[in-house]
Amino acid sequence: KIYAEKWAHKLSTQLIDKPHKHLIFTLPKEIWKYPLIKRDLLSTFSNHIKTLFKNWFKKHDIQNFGLIVAIHTFSRDSSFHPHFHVILSLGGFKKNLVWKKL
Question: Which of 51, 68, 88, 89 has the fewest CB atoms within 10 Å, counting from its CB?
């Protein structure tokens, strides 16, 4: 817990000074067993989340934005429950480096 708090504090000092949102993506319980068998599925899911937001921001003429995806494999009760914590900027920089709020 102490390590996670220190990591979160350090990370917060590196974020751009704009509003961010915390999102959680989870997998249906019926497929939780597959990442246990094939661990690289977790990075595949993470990459799909990144692609999803990259395409979404591109539709809004934004080239650079803030995105952090952290893979968590266990829940509070220590049971296997793969999910993804996402920190996302609420906007980004257009090609001309002007901030566009979303």
Answer: 51
Listed residue (66, 87, 102) closest to 24, CA to CA: 87
Q: Which of 57, 67, 70, 69 is nearest to 99 (CA)?
A: 57
Q: Output the six-digit token pair for 38.
A: 């094939």
Least confident of 35-39, 59-63, 89-93: 35-39
C-alpha dist (Å) from residue 34 to 29, 45, 56, 61, 66? 10, 12, 28, 36, 29
Please give the C-alpha separations between residue 100 and each of 29, 43, 68, 86, in angstroms, as whole numbers.
Answer: 37, 29, 19, 20
pLDDT digits (tens, 9 = 90+) for 38-49: 889 999 999 999
Cα gap 42→51, rounded to integer Å: 14
Number of neighbours of residue 14 by Cβ within 10 angstroms: 8
Give me the residue label for tokens 């751009």.
16
